[in-house]
Every structure is written in structure tokens, then in C-alpha cells.
Amino acid sequence: MADATQYGFSVIETTEALIKAQGIHEGKWLLSVEFTVSIGLMGIASDDARPGAMIVANSFQLTKAPDQGAPSKLIVDAAKVNPAKVKA
After folding, report:
1. DSSP of the chain, one letter per residue?
2. How far apart are CA 49 and CA 41, in angstroms?
3. List of residues 6+ apart from 44 with CB closer than 8 A
4. Angstrom distances, CA of residue 44 to CA of 5, 38, 47, 74
5. Going edge to edge, which strands form the sheet with 28-42?
6. Entry pTM
7. Which residues contact residue 76 at a Cβ distance below 8 angstroms, ignoring those fewer than 6 apart?
8. Could you count the other beta carbons within 10 Å of the beta carbon of residue 65?
9. What is the pLDDT of residues 18-32, one digit of tens each?
């Protein structure tokens, strides 16, 4: 069997993993992505330059879900995916 060279994660799987990594046990969370858009002349040679845009993903963030307006399919409840351990 060949070794895996790539793993894919859905938005929900990524949100759940980040909640667990940060030790969050309560609240409803969304995955956010911070982008930078750069606009300028782009081309292989200066004579071929054309107006263009480049989009860069700077960071991924966990954001508390608002009470209304966010798509419910993208909200992760930390209490369900990473419940706090009960002290004996």
C-alpha cells in the first residue's frame, strides 16, 4: 500500500481540529480566513504586463458564531466536539 502524500479536510473538520488544539470546551465557533488582495501590473515580461490581482490567505481563525446570520452548517459547538473532562 502506498504512503499517503496528501490529506484533505472539510471546513467543519478543520474547525473541530482547531477547537481541540486550542482546548476550547464551550461556545459555537466558525472558521474564518484572513485574505490580502494585491492589485498591480503583472506579467512574465514588462511588455506583456496586464492589470491583475493576487489573493493570499494570511491566516485561519476561530471566530465566535453570531446569534443570527451565520450558516448553521458551518457552526461547530465546542461542547459537543471537545467536551470538558468531568472532575471526579
Report:
1. -PPP------HHHHHHHHHHHTT--SSEEEEEEEEEEEEEEE-SSGGG-EEEEEEEEEEEEEEEPPSSSS-GGG-EEHHHHSPPPPP-
2. 6
3. none
4. 31, 17, 8, 40
5. 50-64, 28-42, 76-77
6. 0.79
7. 12, 15, 16, 19, 28, 29, 30
8. 18
9. 999 999 999 999 999
- Give the mean model confidence (pLDDT) for residues 21-48: 95
- Residue 84's nearest CA partner among 32, 19, 31, 30 is 19
Confidence of residue 4 (pLDDT cuts 50, 70, 90): confident
What pLDDT shows up at residue 87? 77
Q: What is the mean pLDDT of residues 45-64?
A: 95
